[in-house]
User: Fold these one by one.
Assistant:
Number 1:
Amino acid sequence: MGGERIWTAALLVIGDEILSGRTQDRNVAQVAAWMNRQGIRLAEVRIVPDEEERIAAAVNELRRGVDYLFTTGGIGPTHDDITVDSIAAAFAVPVIVHPEARAILEAYYGSRGGLNDARLRMARVPEGAELIPNPLSGAPGVRMDNVYMLAGVPSIAANMLEALNGQLEGGRPMVSVTVGAFAAESEVADLLRETQRAHEGVAIGSYPFAKDGRFGANFVIRSEQGERAQACASDLAGRLTAAGFEPVAGGI
Amino acid sequence: MGGERIWTAALLVIGDEILSGRTQDRNVAQVAAWMNRQGIRLAEVRIVPDEEERIAAAVNELRRGVDYLFTTGGIGPTHDDITVDSIAAAFAVPVIVHPEARAILEAYYGSRGGLNDARLRMARVPEGAELIPNPLSGAPGVRMDNVYMLAGVPSIAANMLEALNGQLEGGRPMVSVTVGAFAAESEVADLLRETQRAHEGVAIGSYPFAKDGRFGANFVIRSEQGERAQACASDLAGRLTAAGFEPVAGGI
């Protein structure tokens, strides 16, 4: 497996509402889980405000270091939707009205009051871009080179991800197996380290929690080879039992 | 108000579990809301994996551009907790055992099985660092220069934020007032733009949603001057009414 190519992605969340604490982001988790299913490793996330220069700079930094850059937010019809302009600036190309996007919006808004200037904003793309279908609400997402612009509303972003399912080249999905225990991390730290050492190609993450006044941790075993992750999980469960802790398959 | 200093912060979330989609992050929202209360503007968030080089590089990029850099995650007792080492590397200083942190852990674990090597890991800090109190579970947070290292478990991070409340120099908290309506963004885009233009020192964000099959949006008016935000909200509500939409104070 050593020579197998690893595909990577980054996510840029564009949104004052996340940075102000007003809105709990839901896109990081859903994009991360989706990437995992495509066999693509999410290597970094950034959240930046609705400012063209900040967006363009982050896009140019991120897109060059990964196979795919996804963005969420800022592709709607209002004055604070500046993702398309910012990404056109990042690529140093003009913004144009995409004829197919215009046709999609005309059809969608035909029975909903027709196309106005604000709605037409959602047909604007950086020159050279393609569309990402959006069966839910008409206005499409946009792909420019390796940059995929999705909506900020999580349900609409989910639809666009669905449309992209299986379309991106990726590797082997990462398999994770979780074992939990009401064990303080500090009591099992050595045991974890030794277990990880005994299993090649496997990483164990330890995620403490407090539940009903008791401390515990979930141990997440990740590998690109499912059998290795399973073997490591069994071994870990055995070691936890031997140390006097009751392992819980699937985590707590 | 033009010359008033704006205080800024960045947040670095350290965690493979977030990037793999396993865990829904809760720290961005709580740190963002806390910053807002301190009058500090959260300017950027990054999420990076548990890799020393990536953490150190992000820390050095971020800490120089803002007044305060907060980190969450990676300060526990297990092998995957490498935040202290990574930040020591970023500052090019050695890691030492902080005598006060050691004393805190000795006291905390005295009745809980005593201090072992794994627990002692939580007394390690970059040389020159100070402690951030953690009333909940003993192990303190760490401050190194303008970098504040908090726990990844949201309830513990919340306690550390509580301990830091009012301790950081900040400006005027941003006031936000929300007005919602079952209006498609594309029907009110011009109205929003005009309202924003009519009110200096105020920014209006528009956040669409789909609820029970109906589309709507919340309009968030933000200003460092509460009266201005309120005046703008009243004006916007009036304009929405005049356009045939029923405004909902506080949002939907």
Note: Chain B has nine helices and twelve strands.
Number 2:
Amino acid sequence: MTGEPGSAGRQRVAPLPLGQVRIDDDFWSPRIRRLREQTLPVQYARLVETGRLDALRLTWRPGDEPVPHVFWDSDVAKWIEAASYSLATVPDPELESRVDGAIELLAGAQQPDGYLNTYFTVVQPGRRFTDLRDAHELYCAGHLIEAGVAHHEATGKRSLLDVACRYADLLDREFGRGPGQRRGYDGHEEIELALMKLYRATGAERYLRLAAYFVDERGQEPYYFDLEAEERGTPGYFGDHFADREADPRRYREYLQAHLPVRKQTEVVGHAVRAMYLYSAMADLVLDNGDESLLDTCRTLWRHLTTRRMYVTGGIGSTADIEGFSTDFDLPNETAYAETCAAIGLVFWAHRMVHAERDRRYADVLERALYNAVLAGVSLDGTRFFYDNPLASAGAVQRREWFGVACCPPNLARLLASLGRYVYSAGPGEAVVHLFVAGGARFEVGGVPVELEQQTRYPWDGRVRLSVRAERPVPLTLSVRVPGWSRRTRLTVAGEEHDPVGQGGYVSVRRTWRDGDELVLDLDLSPRRTYAHPAVAADAGRVALERGPLVHCLEQVDNGDRLSALALPAGAPLHTASTGPDGALSLLAEGMRDGADDWQDILYRNDPPSRQPARLVAVPYCTWANREPGEMLVWVRETGLP
Amino acid sequence: MTGEPGSAGRQRVAPLPLGQVRIDDDFWSPRIRRLREQTLPVQYARLVETGRLDALRLTWRPGDEPVPHVFWDSDVAKWIEAASYSLATVPDPELESRVDGAIELLAGAQQPDGYLNTYFTVVQPGRRFTDLRDAHELYCAGHLIEAGVAHHEATGKRSLLDVACRYADLLDREFGRGPGQRRGYDGHEEIELALMKLYRATGAERYLRLAAYFVDERGQEPYYFDLEAEERGTPGYFGDHFADREADPRRYREYLQAHLPVRKQTEVVGHAVRAMYLYSAMADLVLDNGDESLLDTCRTLWRHLTTRRMYVTGGIGSTADIEGFSTDFDLPNETAYAETCAAIGLVFWAHRMVHAERDRRYADVLERALYNAVLAGVSLDGTRFFYDNPLASAGAVQRREWFGVACCPPNLARLLASLGRYVYSAGPGEAVVHLFVAGGARFEVGGVPVELEQQTRYPWDGRVRLSVRAERPVPLTLSVRVPGWSRRTRLTVAGEEHDPVGQGGYVSVRRTWRDGDELVLDLDLSPRRTYAHPAVAADAGRVALERGPLVHCLEQVDNGDRLSALALPAGAPLHTASTGPDGALSLLAEGMRDGADDWQDILYRNDPPSRQPARLVAVPYCTWANREPGEMLVWVRETGLP
């Protein structure tokens, strides 16, 4: 890190609201259109089919099937949130009426005191707030609040926001360190960042204070979840699932980041999605509460995550058994869990961090996760999803339409529908470009309406043309991220060469911009060979191929089977060709294949395999598993190193 | 395969009884002594401590802890079998009295009609033979019979043999295709090979016929286990364990090799130990019943196993989820299951196959499994055991003293205690040497007592000196296996050079031997680099180091941590040194290590790791995990291939 570039930036700029951002991009627009036309309707149909919406009518009686699940309310809320983001950019009366219908059901399910949770209203009445560790109660509350804020921002309607506020007010009465209050916090973090959004949307400081309470109460001794379990006298909702929980309390406190007070935490541990949502809320408290000590904690955790426990795709959480982190450098490829939601959570956290201190380290990781681990989570046609995202497959891995635990599909939908939030930030006298997405942003400078137009064919082409449109000249600092991976970057401002180097990896050009003035950034999209730290056993002797923000992978459909038999010589040039799925650029190289012809009925022998020339074709990882099923491999063997 | 070398051999030779074999060998004798002095007493103590012996008193009542487990009787039987083998070679009154005590308990537990099973006598009375698929009832019967035969051969006593016969007679009445008989067979094969042993020990053909019935009834439609489950109306003993059994009937029929009639089976599938015990019985039926069609089936299954699904260590069954086989060439190293018992089962099957047709393919695999996958299963001090035998470890894998399901420790004990059975075979006018173990064998040739003395320091030295001791000259064919891995073998007979090539890889020297005549075999123990078929993804770009019958591996204690960062250049010479555990020879080579010093806080970068020279030390796999805990690796990366 270079100096403290962020401390000024922290207060200065904020993400632009969705309504001020236009996306008209060859790479993203079709994906967002498919989201609108395919993903949102399909997901709505699933909410109906699976009984998630009907459950809100509270007519379930013991013996009925299906039994409402503790997660169900959150799936409805995430869908409303995603649909709201979509409505913020493209009006759609049918979608809006579905949203209103779902909100009506939620409002109808709200209890007179503000409480809103299907499971604890009809399946376990009278047990509310007795199983915070397992039962996802505050997690569901958080998603309800996020949906309420998104819906209000998109439509101006208060229908769901008011429901959310009433519930949040109940939580504010219920939880805290005052007399008669519960000193609890959620097993699955989410409520914290949601309350921060509600604070921003309403200005009501009690929500900020409640979020700060939840963050800081976490991990204090005596451990709340131990007291809660003792009082409850039952093993909890996941009691059967985690057979060894009693035997290994430390591991299961780490599982939900409650092993230590958060300010004493130095390692990213446990369930990866939970961790990301917690760290996002911590960064929110840095941004909105000026909490510098939490910033130090966030920096330490960020460094640990990104230098020890992150896949090259930006996927995180390598082990399925806790859906989370294992040990440093343990990044197996074929068994990688790398849950889609965890990569989405990393985008959330990184987005907050780059506003806490403007450093491209955060935005580079955001972009890495977004273009790779996140985007691979949805099929090109927008109808099928990955829950876990391995970096190698023997052929059996395919996307599915839905999951019993259906967190990932609506989470993907809400991220893609709100992509505009991640492209630009703005503040007094400054606009910042974080991502390269064609379209534009509208904002004001000293009362003058300005449009910043972005033209680019990124990620296929490295040229990014930013044009200022304004009725009269405006003094403006235009800051642009220069990604860390771009080795030979060129920059011109109004036709003149400009040094492409800036503090924290953002070039800032302060000048008076006239209508039509351009900043042109030429990023170096030469294909790159990428190596992992020698402690990553799974990647030893192997190389990953990258181009711009995209990690590439080999698929059987292009390379034949037995991908493990392929190797790439160290010096072989990498070329590009427009042969990938959906028009994606592939990387091509002349490699080698271990021949199997002379191994008839031989499993082991003393002569090494003979090597034959083989053309290697690597497509963007985000496009894999969209053609015929087959093997996939990110990390390719490299041969002939000096 | 070359011609049909076995068809004559099939009838000609048989393994020599233990009492006629002497082992006085630097490599094996200390192991067998530790078995006698450590393993057998320790295992007896476990039988007592865990209640397995006491359970035979049949005093268990509902509510008592522990509840006798369905496997328990087999643990007692396997221990008696192992102890009997030990008594056959080394008298030990204390051990014999413990054996007699255990037999007394077994005899006391036998019901008036011959039935003998603790679980179904006290825990589930009245339910005998209703859950053959899951409850290991005939499996326990099989081990009881094997113990009875071994005890009789070792001591001449009939105490346990008579118990076994009474039980086998009950089974003969109960099972079969006759009126009123059950057309069942065991879920875990074992009874079949046990009945073949009982047939050989008693000459009673009903046992042979019952074994043949069990083998051939397996996999016939309608599937017996489906009928049995329907009749029983409960999910079976492992109903909870296999949640997806109803959903995937084919997989769970394959699990116990009951998906097809055995003569139609062409692929080794399912639970590896079960498969080996079944195939062993099939080979027994070839040997004793002249069943040529079963020999064809065995050959097909053997080829499939050894060319698609066997680790270089001779370990088999790569996946833990069914303790068995997955798919062709799926041989992951770190997660290898490779159960000790499965490798032992492979030794059993290979031993029968080499008597069905004399071909070193079988004995080479027998030796590979014995010296590597089997022997690694027990610590050098004889007190701790591996259940599964991975070929790579990140450091957490260590042997344990005992297991809840304790099949492996007594199985190892009975194999090591009966090692002599695997060294020699003899028949009219011929003696065969399969394994190189110093000591000797006694047999008669035309009424003349002959001793064949074997002197060798194998596997550390390749010279094997076989001397004939006889009162007068004897016409004898002396056949010796020349292992397939020995590239430059020399052979002299009575001082004269002899061509070291023979049918099926066994050199046969027919001559009149005088007292003191010697056959000297010089095997080529040059260290070998071994490569796996290019379809084995886990071993791509990697090499295993072997010397003689021993597969070697790298351990952290010799090589430092991060073994995956090490690589062996293709041309690097391999040297030997006496630095291994327990005096074992190590292999040494000058290799390379990917340096981590210049990766501070970097997880991915575009410059490849720098390489530093590093001495690689590889110890025999069978000696690993006997010093300090740490990483282990069999397949090392190879660099610099042309």
Note: The first strand of chain A starts at residue 14 and ends at 15.
Number 3:
Amino acid sequence: MKKILIFLLLLPVFNTFAQNRIEKWRVFELTLKGTSKGNPFTEIQVSAEFTNGNQQKIIQGFYDGNGIYKIRFMPQETGTWNWITSSNSKPLNNKKGSFECIAPTGNNHGPVVVKDTFYFVYSDGKPHYSFGTTCYAWVHQGDSMADLTLKTLGNGYFNKIRFCIFPKDYDWNKNEPLIYPFEGNPLKDWDYTRFNPAYFQNIEKRIAQLDSLGIEADLIVFHPYDRWGFQNMDPQTDERYIRYIIARFSAFKNVWWSMANEFDFMSAKKMEDWDKFIRLFAENDPYNHLRGIHNGAVWYDHTNPLITHASIQSEETYRAKELRMKYKKPVVFDECRYEGNIPWSWGNLTPQEMVNKFWRGVTNGGFVGHGETYVTENPVKMPHESNDNLWWSKGGILRGQSPERILFLKNIIESSPGYLKPADLFEWWMPFSAVSYKDEYYLAYYNLDQPRSQILKLPEKSRYTIEIIDAWNMTITPVEGEFSGRSLVVLPQKPFTALRITKIKR
Amino acid sequence: MKKILIFLLLLPVFNTFAQNRIEKWRVFELTLKGTSKGNPFTEIQVSAEFTNGNQQKIIQGFYDGNGIYKIRFMPQETGTWNWITSSNSKPLNNKKGSFECIAPTGNNHGPVVVKDTFYFVYSDGKPHYSFGTTCYAWVHQGDSMADLTLKTLGNGYFNKIRFCIFPKDYDWNKNEPLIYPFEGNPLKDWDYTRFNPAYFQNIEKRIAQLDSLGIEADLIVFHPYDRWGFQNMDPQTDERYIRYIIARFSAFKNVWWSMANEFDFMSAKKMEDWDKFIRLFAENDPYNHLRGIHNGAVWYDHTNPLITHASIQSEETYRAKELRMKYKKPVVFDECRYEGNIPWSWGNLTPQEMVNKFWRGVTNGGFVGHGETYVTENPVKMPHESNDNLWWSKGGILRGQSPERILFLKNIIESSPGYLKPADLFEWWMPFSAVSYKDEYYLAYYNLDQPRSQILKLPEKSRYTIEIIDAWNMTITPVEGEFSGRSLVVLPQKPFTALRITKIKR
């Protein structure tokens, strides 16, 4: 608030405002004062060229209302960046300046990118193991609910959250959003040529808050749960909207683009439309943020080279191993049904089964996303009559028992010595799924089965320690002894058993 | 024992022996004294023509050792049956007689046949809902183990049991059988042209004992778990063996023919061999007993019209609904993994998951088979070193918790008003599988999910009672009130929930 006040005071004097010094991968924001006449969204173009040695980027700006234009830039190199603006409007043209880009500090690891075909990595080299959640409409529930959601996310269960840019209309989410993305009134006089900057400012505030918590913002560009017309906009509006959100959001390092939720449930869009949207992002996002597309009943062909990772809705998370090979990309089960108690088939998993789906996905070389749908209203209501707060839709608090166990798994994975891949060492008849890092580390999971023993075929030239993990009770118990070659291990004979096998370094 | 003594005493006097009077569907056995010279198995043919009004059957006999020939016949009509033998050996030729076939009594319901495409029925019209189990080698473990197995089966959990005609060589089943199906010594001098009658007498004793318990004997004709050579016999031997077991066993009303267990794991056999075996049974079994073939990794094409039902190995029992439509036959998941604790992937289901697979199969219009693989030896041994008694292999006692729950389900299904088919009434988004009988009765199952409520779309013109079933705790609790049309039902919010919905008859 204070910053905005200073900013407003300065504006009459300087019509250009920007930082002098920012960290690599942070948002450099150039604010320019221009005209508010006519329709600045459609009539005014403004961009800036940023140069640093032989590095050069042309970045599109956007109109933010009240005669304010902004150009946001995420520097990916340290050193001095010079900039110069270009516009068809004189007050915005030929402005110059420079800033110093310094090394990142603290938890600034830069944007997440794909590494070694199947994995994610932050730009500074730190591995990113995706453990996501879903709160489709959390940014449209006002500040107090958003604050509560952020507080919950602060517990560190998840490092990615999927949510919709447009408001959502669905069971348990019939409330009207506080503000709308376009000027005008719902279903009366939308002016699709004029965005409502406040709507997008709210979203970017949330993106920045997530970033401060180390959480990736997986932005859902289109979705079918809509009563306002946003799923049926014309192609020109769709494209203008995409270019606008790229200009506004792409400088935030934690942004991922999800073309749609359940793209195939949007009857007004054809497969060519989705291909076109993907290409629009690929060609116009200066930072090449991760791009996915989430399916309903029909799967997108994730072999499209402009898709960076396979974003899958399927409860069969164990298929990660097969889908890796099919798509040759990271496989993220962004939706595998939700922990909850609602009457819809996708929202009544036990916490046990949610945890199981995480372990199965991860020990088959994939990534899995969480969601939660607990209704608590009394008396029980029909879904369309209920305005209960379900995490999956509105955020707020978590009621389930899976997040704590997901965090337990996340901690195990984050402490592994390297990226884990499906383990060749283990044979098909072995009753678990397993991943390994070279011959140094194995993680095997027994699903909900209850074997009493395991015959392992460990490498003969090394010795290993074995720990038995109880994935539900979150215990890790060392097995006495050292193991090598063909080894018989006695197991606790109950569901949620996993093994962590670590090579002993001499 | 007494009967056999009398029989032996009579033989020197009469060289033909048979009953005068038997129930429909029981075994009429004609015993003839002939030569034991040469090789009666290959050199002597004997058959009998049975006639009763315009009914006529030619039935092949078989050599039972010690100069004894038998012709077994299962009459399918009451009244007087006349018979006359035919043979290339004079003492067996042109023998005549008759017997009276009387109405069945007690639990004699006749052979099971297919009804209305997807179901089984006893020949007297009583529905047969298949609830099977598997004890591959129980008939090869000697009398005391077999008696124990029969005692366990007497608890009524199951009405079908799958087992192998040949002995079995596999982990936890390395013991030598007491006797062999052929003359000679293992791997030295088998004489494949001479059967060992005692071997087959033992099996038919078990078939008869099962029948007295009301249990179908699903006989596995070939299997790959073999160290004696029976999986690699030449085509002539295979065919002679098939004709021999048809002659010996087919008059037992409770016989089903399973061409193989895991047919595709028998590398010496080609698909044409299986087609040929199926045709051999179809053309030579006078009673057209049920014929199936059980898969390993490769599924047989169960659309073959000579296959009576799809015998499936798959843990995905919920696919019954889809497979019914694919094969247009009853779908029996004869193997969906086993309740147990062994280190092989197919033998370590929790009892909960075994029960779940039964409910999912049944509420998708299929039938499911049980199996149990609990190792109890201490200390824990490598599977190939263990000679533990596992139900799945040797029979004996059941250690699991699923059989009692399977019986609970069996009782529910057997008390339904008619054959249940996948319910059209319920829509895809409803979180359960459901079957119904007309609009009179619905059975819906929620898998391991935990919905808190259900919106049902019941027929509006009738009123229904609803009961909540806990499939694990085996309780049935009526919901207060009567229901009609769109109805909200509050559920207990835990796994193993099912609903039984019954039309109120005014």
Note: Confidence is low (pLDDT under 50) at residues 8-13 of chain A.
Number 4:
Amino acid sequence: MIKERSLIQQIRRIAASSVNKAVKKGIGDDCAILRLKPGFELLVTTDLCLEDVHFRRAWHSAAAVGHRCLTRGLSDIAAMGGEPLACFLSLGLPADLPQAWVNGFLRGLLALARRYKVQLAGGDVSSAPQITADIVVSGQVPYGTAVLRSGARPGDRVYVTGALGGSAATLKELFAGNAVKPTKSSSNFYPTPRLEVGGYLRKHRLASAMIDLSDGLSVDLSHICDESGVAAILMSNKIPLAKSTDFELALHGGEDYELLFTASKSAKIPSRIAGVAITEIGEIRNRRDYSSAIQILRDNGKVRPLPQRGWQHFARER
Amino acid sequence: MIKERSLIQQIRRIAASSVNKAVKKGIGDDCAILRLKPGFELLVTTDLCLEDVHFRRAWHSAAAVGHRCLTRGLSDIAAMGGEPLACFLSLGLPADLPQAWVNGFLRGLLALARRYKVQLAGGDVSSAPQITADIVVSGQVPYGTAVLRSGARPGDRVYVTGALGGSAATLKELFAGNAVKPTKSSSNFYPTPRLEVGGYLRKHRLASAMIDLSDGLSVDLSHICDESGVAAILMSNKIPLAKSTDFELALHGGEDYELLFTASKSAKIPSRIAGVAITEIGEIRNRRDYSSAIQILRDNGKVRPLPQRGWQHFARER
């Protein structure tokens, strides 16, 4: 049986190895204390990671669950162009969960934290009927430079990093009962938050709007359209497909954790940033000219509205 | 059935009524953006609030659950002497939960948020087998002035705010199957975070160490002792008892959300701060002179070690 106090002591001990100098006080008091650089503002994001909703113990190793959990938060920091500083983990665990699972989860989470100099600086633990993790990531960005969802303008081009649909393709195999070997490069098991790309775009003021692809291209692009008051048209033949996926999964599959951004037509967008391919996939249009937020130009030359069919937790149970 | 997108829209709409000017960007982007006052550092705390662990639907109204949930976080900010700025709510909900419950929960949480000018600035929603809430509160405090658990020194006096054991007494009645009328002044249903007291103590540099009483006096005082490397002696006849409680519940019952602090012998501690009674209950001693962290001077004049028997989630299921 996992004891609350010994679990906190375990987490505190291993968290000491992930250090960021912005953290003045980590685990061990009522609050953590962080000091931002002068002229910087704070970014905060929180993401739930629940057993049988966001992962399955039979499919995802404990280390992969820990990695995925932190990636969700880091990817949100990347989508603002920010620099992550610290994370906070609220963990609800079944009383009969093996200690080895907890160890693996923390190992996966903290390996990723160390890679980006993110300090585990606090959290909470409790018993719970199923594994319940809520990850909070705080980061910083110079005053007024965060890239919002609301800055896309008609005429801007739409870009994505990497390739899409890989994570959903893996999930489809798992649902079909097929064995999938989890590799460190698998976007479903070990997704990479695009922090270097997001930081580059912010620093060079290249992106007019940005979001991370967690729910799927069709849903996440609609968020940019809604917040910016614009429409978008996607070119189906430009969308970069991951290996072993298909077009529908690339459009609607979630959890790719790539970045989707817009940039003015005149912006010089490199074809690769920090080793990651950048692909132009569409264009921002006037919202009033279209009946729905997103249109897609199919290979047959026809333009059709694209429905939003990405991940919606309450709409279906996984 | 609760839909994820409409739930987010509902929360975003009603959260707009709780405004704090530190929040530059609230709900509606990948991260919230907060700007601290120059010369201030950031406080962050996270607290889980889980059905059947921290509350029961049969005992606690939805509004009381929302209030209690935010109190947990605000009380941690109070215990550092901080000023709360924003909160973030991660919410996992069963698919069959009535919308009325969600409305009541948000009403209770946001009424408390407005009272302290705390803006609901972000979060996450998901489906979950049981009601799962994780509340994050961020606040600020001038550089280097946060009151830690680690500052208690031998000779310091030990103080508490308010009266103890009231929340546990209510819980005991509920466990016994007795009806308890939830009033707005009940510490179990509507606990008050002691933000004014914590802020006063910090501003006047009166407290050497501070913690909030969430797990119970015996456990929370042991945290101050452990972090400060000291022991403490409590005077049993000085401990302020809430109405209808007993001495054991005052020592070991959790969820009072009063503040426990230490101050040098020479510090002038008012008998009331912001209308709340302050009571001296003990003294800090050298740790090496005692076999355990906390001793208690009983009415019979005998000094005995006080075991830690407060709330420990993994030790027992409520």
Note: Helices of chain A lie at 4-15, 62-79, 99-115, 166-175, 195-203, 217-228, 247-252.
